[in-house]
Amino acid sequence: MTATRRNILKSLAAIAAVGVGTIGPRSVSAAPPVAVVTTTSMIADTARQVGGERVAVSALMGAGVDPHSYRQTRSDIAAMLRADTVLWHGLYLEAQLEEFLLELGQRKRVVAVGEAAPRDRLIAHADYENRFDPHVWMDPSLWRSVVGAVRDVLTGIDPDGAPAYGAGAERHLAEIDTLNAYAADRLSTVPQEQRVLVTAHDAFSYFGRAYGFDVMGIQGISTESEAGLRRIEELVGILVARGISAVFVESSVSERNIRALIEGARAQGHDVTIGGELFSDAMGRSGTYEGTYIGMIDHNVTRITRALGGDAPEQGMQGRLALGS
Hints:
Oligomer: single chain
CATH topology of the largest domain: Rossmann fold
Largest sheet: 4 strands, parallel
Distance between the termini: 48 Å
Shape: globular
Strand content: 5-15%
Low-confidence stretches: 18-23
CATH architecture of the largest domain: 3-Layer(aba) Sandwich
Order of helices and strands: HEHEHEHEHHEHEHEHEH
Mean pLDDT: 88
Strand order of the largest sheet: 2-1-3-4
């Protein structure tokens, strides 16, 4: 037994007194709402959209939190043990949590809903065999699969709520389809030569494939990977050669490497600006439009379009984006 697994088992045993829910279905008609704990805020929003008043949802990771490096706290463990279900992304997104979540899945209903995305549409990980790029939320057509997975998990726990969960899922899927159409329409206005998206780490490959952009991250798929000087020099050369006018920072990743890119391009006589802050691995602040999945992607699409010379309304698809965000 590894030291990591021993620590996980000790943590579970130490907090087991809080109680562990059953794995089978239960009725919530005369009980509190279904208690759902999620790892990421994107999954939390999806559970709220599908579950409505029949669920009480909390996320371990809020705005600006990097899921690649996040480790569970004692209070996280207690919350997950109390929950009726734990929904995580999978696809190695929550790399530091994965062993714990797999262990917890032997005791509770723990579901990796991101792995509902069709395997033949996943982008292979260049560095790890049988691993895939986890950032599937960047393509709304792929995120539809996650909505369906969340609906099915909630229905399995609360069969009485099946009609409500089905209706919530259909409503949210319609919103996602509208978002996808807006994204395709607005991003198509970006001049072809400017369709290069340079960000802090490689979180936008599904976005690029969906909407016809070359995507280049300084770091790899995980923010745990190192950004080498050679990679920065390579990207500076691309910015200069292709006349790229804007690069983007991310809300959950340090700006340091992006600043190095800008300075490197300037040293070669080419001015590059920061086109805005994008939401990559976390949504915006809770309680804001950008703190929803629809708002997160609307923000990214709108900011990318405008910064790279396309045409999009400043406040986005629904006129709800914060000005200057």
